[in-house]
Design brief:
Elements (H helix, E strand, L loop, with lengths): L1 E3 L2 E4 L8 E4 L4 E4 L5 H13 L7 E5 L5 H4 L2 H8 L5 E5 L11 E4 L4 E4 L2 E7 L8 E5 L4 E5 L18 H12 L5 E4 L8 H19 L1
Parallel strand pairs: 4-5, 5-6, 6-7, 11-12
Antiparallel strand pairs: 1-2, 2-3, 3-4, 8-9, 9-10, 10-11
Helix pairs in contact: 1-3, 4-5
Bound molecules: zinc ion (ZN).
Length: about 210
């Protein structure tokens, strides 16, 4: 569905992450789901939004979990274009074994078809987690750092760290967020409220994991 002009969401199916589409004349895909089948679904959905798939130029990965990168290879194959750049956090750039991959740093700003998105490094769920923030329209694409209704990404997988997650959510809680677009679960309005609940919940988990 179209959330605001030039920003679309594609819901997950089963284990897939949600996927977000930014732009019309120059399209960016954020996260790719768990499987090659979901990659095909992404393409179908982009077409159903009335967009031209030859305008896809960038793929941004919020972190390297299989449910977010499982469709990446298939997407690149389906789009059969070497001009597509894959953006990931610079810490794990070599993990992808791709020639067209670019490393992102905290604070970097990407112009995605006229919408400016700031990269916010948010380790905790993984060591390479990033969020994308658009200040003008108050949009946060939060990966698996925070979800709606006070939920948070798990920290019991390799690279997970609850202390880092709390620090990262503290960073997010300072932003003015209206549209919260998480990696799983539904997108919600009044993002600030949801992020504050997530921060509280993450803090209450400090004791469990210490
Ligand atoms: Zn994850």
């Amino acid at each position: 569905m179209e959330i605001i002009d030039k920003v679309y969401s594609i819901d997950s199916i089963g284990f897939d992450s949600n996927c977000y589409i930014i732009g019309k004349n120059e399209i960016t895909i954020v996260d790719t789901g768990a499987s090659p089948e979901y990659a095909k679904f992404i393409i179908e959905k982009i077409r159903s939004f009335g967009l031209d798939i030859s305008n896809i130029h960038k793929i941004i990965i919020t972190h390297r979990h299989p449910d977010h990168i499982g469709g990446l290879k298939k997407l690149l194959e389906l789009l059969s274009s070497n001009s597509i750049l894959v953006y990931v956090h610079k810490k794990f750039i070599t993990y992808y074994k791709l020639s067209n991959v670019k490393g992102l740093s905290d604070g970097e700003i990407l112009n995605l078809d006229g919408l400016l998105f700031k990269i916010i490094y948010t380790p905790g769920h993984t060591e390479d987690s990033i969020c994308l923030y658009n200040e003008k329209y108050k949009i946060l694409i939060s990966g698996d750092t925070v979800f709606s209704f006070g939920n948070i990404g798990r920290v019991d997988l390799p690279g997970g760290n609850i202390k880092n997650l709390v620090k990262s959510i503290e960073k997010l809680a300072k932003l003015d967020v209206e549209f919260l677009l998480p990696g799983h679960m539904d997108f919600v309005m009044e993002g600030n409220k949801h992020i504050k609940q997530s921060l509280q919940f993450a803090k209450s988990n400090l004791i469990i994991y210490e």
